[in-house]
Amino acid sequence: MIYTVVAAALAISTHHIPLNSNFEAWKRTHSKAYATFEEEIEALKAFEANEMIIREHNAKNLSYTLGHNIYSDLTWEQFQAKHMSELFVNRNPKNARRVHLTQPGYKIADAKDWVADGAVTPVKDQARCGSCWAFSTTGSVEGAYQIATGTLKSFSEQQLVSCDHNGDQGCSGGLMDNAFEYIEKNGISLEEEYPYTSGGGVTGTCDTSKVKPVATVTGFKDVPSKDETALKDAISKGPVSVAIEADKSAFQLYKSGVLDSSACGTNLDHGVLAVGYGTDAGKDYYKVKNSWGKTWGEAGYIRMVQGKNMCGIASQASYPTGAKDFGPVPPSPPPGPPTPPTNTHYSDPATGCLSDETEITIQGVDGDFCSPACSFVKSCPTDLPAGVTAAPQCALQDSASSKKYCALICSPTLPIRNQQAADAQCGENASCKSVQMGIGLCTYDD
What we know:
By secondary structure, the chain is an alpha+beta fold.
């Protein structure tokens, strides 16, 4: 008997990724591979959604463009969860009563680029860790150190992430001012000595064997909030740590140009570094270094429009007032009798201003001082810090508010032309700064 065998066609199920040549090219460019079919399908969907956003935006011919980068396979929600989990630790701003005054006749340079001037290290990548605050901090300290010493060194973000418990929380977020205080007390190591954790950075525990501090800051200042003249003046002197709102898809996909978007708010959630400013096609901009790697933006940088507090860039800026090599910690002196408070006007803001005073900085003039308000009918107080012979005068006016302030007026060009004697007019820890021909005022250099 002959048996006829009928072969049943077997239905073989195969996974097939819909072909998208742009996605395939993008995967090759960024060496992307996915563990499962489902992961790749989700990545493709996100890529195509982002590609639509890019095309629709660029068709408008605005001042900035969007484009693909290493994050193009993430939805904004995924990107935010993996890269934007910074928790800024809020505290009362030190600049709540700070005013920056413009000086008549003083002109800030039209453009500045600390990258070109050699005060900025190559772009880094915080990866999957909410450590932007650490990268912003090291950036401004690296700049301050290079300006002070002439040598550019790359400092350790991981030391801050793992060892700085001055209100900061590692990969869960932090604040640049907290980190400045930590560095002021403990110093900062080289990146090569305490490298960023391979694979994306983790908080971990502090490895004291890697903490080998080589530099410290001599102090730091907050820029008066929302004062872009003060911010630009600060950037002209060195890189400045700034906080911005980056929870918008324009940041994930930013490619080039000057970001100018009314959709960008001021809910600060990301720390970056302002490294310069300039003008492009009639738009004044800040040049900002990010910590999302070199494939993002303009080789890791973004330009943001001036004059609009774009994304809150002028809301919470701060910078080191100086940096130096970290020396041995001197032994603590034996406790002595407490120093009585001075309770005088015109004192050093580092020790606190009186309730009727404002902390004043002046465009183009180093240092600051506590200043009471004055007017035609309200004269300047005459209680002065010990040793001060400079005269209090109602000599300053804020161009924005028209408020007038007192200052200690000194002579920067005494007949003997001795700077030490000129500074002596201002008392301890202050010096006489020239502001006009033959006229100076006393400021404190912390």
